[in-house]
Amino acid sequence: MSLVKHSARTVRKPCRSCGSSELYWAHDTDRAYHKHCDRCNVTGGFVLIEKDGSRHDCRITSGEPEDSMPDMDPDGPTEDDEKEVSPVAAPVSPDVQQALGMLVGALTPQVDRAEIEAMVKEAVANVVFPTRTVVERANGARIELSGATHHKLGDVITSLMAGEHVLMVGPAGTGKSTIAEQAAEALGLKSYSISLSPQTPASQVLGYMQATGDYVPSLFREAYEHGGVFHFDEMDNAHPSVLAVVNAALANGHMAFPDQMVKRHPDFRAVASANTYGRGATRSYVGRQAIDAATLDRFSVETIEVDETLENELCHSTGLETDLVERVLFFVRRLRANAEAHSMPVVISPRASVGMCRLLRAGRSWESAVEARVRRGMGDTEWNKLSG
Ligand SMILES: Nc1ncnc2c1ncn2[C@@H]1O[C@H](COP(=O)(O)OP(=O)(O)OP(=O)(O)O)[C@@H](O)[C@H]1O
Ligand SMILES: [Mg+2]
Asked: Region (Disordered): which ranges (predicted)?
């Protein structure tokens, strides 16, 4: 038997006997019924062959006479079997072609990868992710603080838990007083605070005796005797005589109050905040007092700078529309950088950015909000330097 493969394509009509369509047409040049195929230039009857080139024999193996095999079709492949299958291109009008062109153009990215990355980074940088601050105490108790927190809060809490008193130093409005309150909440202790000034008398710390002989306790006495976090706000603004009292209270495990000696409670902690490191006035904080070394020595010092993530959160929480909040933040941060670069004695705190957002939200114009919260009557020369 000599078989010549007629077509590289499998048959379209399956074998009439077994239904297989994984077959090919071939010429059997030995077959009685001869027919010349111009394409293959051979003469022979059409038969079906397998992939491997062997004769398809579904009927041979079942014992039927070879001449009755269904694949021995004298006519070979039908027209259908021979037709190449190709996609039919429907005629397309010029209008449709133009519309398709525009659609493809619109779907093709018009920006490159670097541009897309820059856009995503910018968008993500201004996203305000909701934050949760959970404090786990040594005894396993967990306290979740509500609201936003400064990223230094954790350090302050850890120091207080370790038995340290903490002095927070940083520019105005960076969140020092808020950290003191949140730290007390995290430790499960009551929070007390006094704001010190050169006029604050020692009696405001120690309490005093009335003419009747009754003792009037102070908040400090309450915290010292019963435990709590006591915040000496603006410590670098205090009169030295008051700082001497603070020093004495922290130096010893007991303290002479006007009515009696009092033992310091083990859960008493002091936090203090200041705009300077206690070495006296600076260009921005002109009225500040130097704090004596012995008092400073009682405290661990934490520097509290502007936390820009917290500032983002506070500005967005004003409810001002996002685009304007971003404009305010960009503007305020540029002023801050300029003030630093030119060593200008101005403070552009988060109070300025949050305040501007509030004013704009209330309907004030950009110019009036800038004047009220940032410029504040500054002369042209200074303002040009700051805002340039
Ligand atoms: N974590 C916070 N959550 C909500 N508001 C905050 C937070 N931190 C600061 N603020 C707000 O920012 C402003 C300044 O905060 P705070 O008074 O704590 O700063 P400060 O560093 O103590 O300022 P100063 O040096 O002027 O005493 C306040 O209006 C306060 O309510
Ligand atoms: Mg404060």
From this structure: 57-85
